């Protein structure tokens, strides 16, 4: 088939107008020939014979009359074994295999290793009836069973004619032959392509999330848990610890596959991931963290249009692993940069702007993207999930801005990072009162938690929240009226909230032990803290009250720093008990 | 502007003129290409069919419709070689120090980005002698960090000081909207220090058209990349004042009828600033580019689009403020932050660095609480009073920007203050460190 071609007729920054012959499709990929260098671009608008394309590279030196060739398909991700432990740019070029220190324009590298041999084990048998996303076989990718599936683009039912015997194969080798409804033979390899802006289907249904994804971060798991297959976002001004929190979740999250999309952020932060992750061990499996991680990175100085593509590429890779029945976690830092990329483009297209000059359909675009997360039931009875946590960088730290507001509508968990908490070094700086998890309202999640953790767990969580709320009110009163101007009970309420804050909410991300707290340990600590809060003490004055709670807090904190249920742990626990019995006298 | 290119295309009919741009019919023109319009430098910013729009850096006042337009055939370039050292240039890279033009390889400015996978993690401490920086907000080579300062603060002096004390091979100054006085100050400071041979300056002063400033960072960074990449040198880039740079961006976007976003800044402000700051890099070959910038604030307001976007891009910020107790300019320990400091603290500095730093700042915070108590009319405890005395001395001997001592001296000074005003328990320092460093007054 002859490809559609065209010539460049206009240029404003990375928005290029192309006059074409034949037909083009919205979001179709094209390449602009600039003296032998081919620049990739995507069609974003068509009027008459003119296509507006956004170029994924710098357009410097481009001129009117440059030749353009349309590719006949949308921006696609290449899916197959070898995605994990790779580092890609937003268009899924492998950054590791590029030779130069500087990124060269028009240099596109293959996402997967075509020469590597994979140990293949068949699953499907000749005669099986299969559909898109059904499993034909598997290879071991690190320690994960990577399923080789019927390509997602296949429509209708196929009959398996043959599957190769167990053995070593390259990704481009034919591993199965299927017969379609017309009786034609279709070969299948280990690699397939899928347009990133289209959600991958092939599952039976997407139920409401009904279980929790543990992160090891107490202020999330205990106070505002995120569901497996759920969505959450972390807005916060700069310097509040957004990135540290995201990295902590990436290191500890109870997922089998982690995809990190570094979208328009600092290159040195990505370097930290590149240098540190290969040395870190996954706390759940004891394997190297990098083995379960893929990184999609479009740092702030890389081409803006590819920034938008990067989050879609990352999501597509997540959906691919979900279809294998795996638990996948996607972290995107930061979705604001992606929204800004949309704004830059909309502005160049001279569209009528919405609030803060963002495109009017920003909210719809964000909702649409968050909707791609979820837990799904596969046709073979297994489940897979994509949990998505995005960060938002609100301009001026003001949460009343379009990206935060649009995201709030789409995400079910909200982890607000508070400048005041960061200033007083109370990390993670997640505000316990402004933040919420809608999943605590789901009866199925409440049942799950009460069964999994403790029969009265959710009740306890709300009790802890209430203590914090009361403590905050009391603190305001004390500030206004002075330490002596309020009854002792005000001080007690305030210090109970401090106890919850210091022992449960605050967590040292840089301490080897404190950085990750498993659920049973969280249950133990919250129960003990609430026990203390239930006790009655008769303090002489507010100073007694303060000193007493300071000592209790200190002993509890030492417990947090000790190996769970170790001798040291119980030593400090004894200390807590002693303090309590003295306090009661 | 002089050019060595033989091939030129000349046009003499303008179709449209605005305050900052001219439009004409031309062919074979490439995006970002440089041109002159009636002798003034201009750059291609828009191509629509055969209509070419040029941004005229110096403004279009007095330009007639029959002005001569000459296309240069390439984007702005800089000749790079070791001859750059010790020289002063304008925004176009032309000498302003009466010296000869620089011979060297012609390089396009605003070149490609470093592959993030090929970067090294920054790991070399850059000492400055200023405790507010070295002790509390340590600088690391390959870092990018701005001073946030009100216009009345001596940020250019502090920056010159930092640059001259820093142990680097080259210092590149990018001056945007510098007043002539400040330009002469830098020149004199560099000459007096006898450091001219390791300094390259690109300067746009307030006498010159503001839009020209847009070229300065790219010029400075192209020179920086030459020394860091080609020569494996440690390069420090000073950019002052980035707020004026951003103002120039907003002027251009406004003239081009773009829809402004927050604070009348262009929607692309984040990407525009990131492109500059992300040039800071630690290269695998050993060379590095460190960027120290100045972002002037309006009455300390960091929520304005310029400091706000900057904060999201840079690795921390150094906040200058006048301390009311001592009357000295200090580096504010609360609002300043160096995100990369943990890469060198206790690794390239003494084992007590991290604890001493945190304790000193915490006690300073206690002093500020005591002050609030005092202002609200509450009684002060003995501890509060000692905190206040400590704060004064801490501010005077460590936070003030006129301090110039080694990091070990800073640590020793802090230990001396701890012992002078507090008990060991009040400092909450680790026992092993107290045993080793506590300075008994008796």
Average residue pLDDT of chain B: 92
Tell me the name of the CATH homologous superfamily of the largest domain in chain A.
P-loop containing nucleotide triphosphate hydrolases
Structural class of chain A: alpha+beta
Radius of gyration of chain B: 25 Å
Poorly predicted regions of chain B are 1-5
Instruction: Report helical residue fraction of chain B.
Output: 25-40%
Give the chain pair forming the largest contact, with residue counts: A-B, 60 and 62 residues
User: Ends of chain B: how far apart?
Assistant: 72 Å
First-last Cα distance of chain A: 90 Å
Q: What would you report as the Rg of chain A, rounded to the nearest angstrom?
A: 27 Å
Strand composition percent of chain A: 15-25%
CATH class label of the largest domain in chain B:
Alpha Beta
Write a structural description:
The complex is a heterodimer of chains A (585) and B (442). Chain A is an alpha+beta fold. Chain A has four domains: 5-74, Thrombin, subunit H (Beta Barrel), CATH 2.40.10; 118-191, OB fold (Dihydrolipoamide Acetyltransferase, E2P); 212-440, 3-Layer(aba) Sandwich (Rossmann fold); 457-584, Orthogonal Bundle (Bovine Mitochondrial F1-ATPase, ATP Synthase Beta Chain, Chain D, domain3). In chain A, strand 3 (28-34) and strand 4 form a beta hairpin. In chain B, the strands form four sheets. In chain B, strands 9, 13, 14, 15, 16, 17, 18, 19, 20 and 21 form a ten-stranded mixed sheet that branches. A seven-stranded antiparallel sheet of chain B has the order 1-7-4-5-6-3-2, with no helix packed on it. Chain B is an alpha/beta fold and 442 residues long. In chain B, strand 14 (170-178), helix 3 (180-192) and strand 15 form a beta-alpha-beta unit. Strand 1 (5-12) of chain A pairs antiparallel with strand 5 (40-48) of chain B, so a sheet runs across the interface.
